Amino acid sequence: MKYFNTCLHLGQRQIKDTSSKRWLVAGILTAIVCVPFGLGAATMARAAGKDAKKGNAAAYKKRIRQSKVFSLTGIGLGLPFITAILVVTLLGHSAVTSSGKDDSTFVENSDGEDTVSAFVESSTSEHITVSTPEYKQNQISANYIYLGCFEDNKPRDLDGDEYNFGDDLSVENCNTYCSERGYKYAGLQSGFFCSCGTSYGSYGELDQDECSSVCAADGLECGGFYSNSVYRTNYIGCYENDREEFDHYVDLPYYEFTPSSCTKQCSKDGYRFAGLRSGWFCYCGNYLDRFDEAPDDECDWGCPLNSQLSCGGDFQHSVYNTSN
Description:
With 324 residues, this protein is of the alpha+beta class. The chain contains six helices and 13 strands. Helix 3 runs antiparallel to helix 4.
């Protein structure tokens, strides 16, 4: 028996393990780009090492082959996926930074306070833009009312949504952006920055020469350094419709349903007001006094393709002025 065990031990030592550690490392690296296949490759390589110690040549070769297949497949699947993510990330970063290609900057310093610098003439200045989702303007027919030049500070005077338009800032763009989101006031600052609010003037009014920046998109006044050119948007407010309804219904396709499209159609049909309800319905009318005003937070329905827009409530209308 002792002789037999000695022979068996010598037979086991004849299997030279030259691959299991190498493919174990390959499996771990594969897991970086494709976890399931990387773990499978590492598991098979580890098992192959155990088979080599037991002297099981057939099992050893089989598991090494399986480890190779897992690793190569994982790399083949994972690398294109990682490459695609990197390309999308780089393109997105390029799009964001290109919006700051003018000489205006919006930066945040170490103590958390932001600083708006209007038209900084420096080729070495770093441009850091406000991080906001892409905004596509929908033109609407409306006469926005200019309210004056007002000081801004921290916290913001207009403390609602905000957007960095860069060279695309215009009075129309900023007012449309704010009114579609259910804000009554829009502020343009430093020639590129737009902010929205339900109130304004908390820091006081300034002389008109403090709002001397110019909007690149329309050549109109666009605020100044920590000063807002404030406008009254065409958003009127949230109104109940439990007893009364508007005079005219407009059937808009869901992919075109926005406050802008509803307001534009009501204006075209000759009505003074547009009302959006339940995220899907567009109404037009000439009389608003028969409706009771509701709190703005009751008009909490978004629009079909953009939940950030104000498209009424369960039994409430988000009402807009068509300027007719």
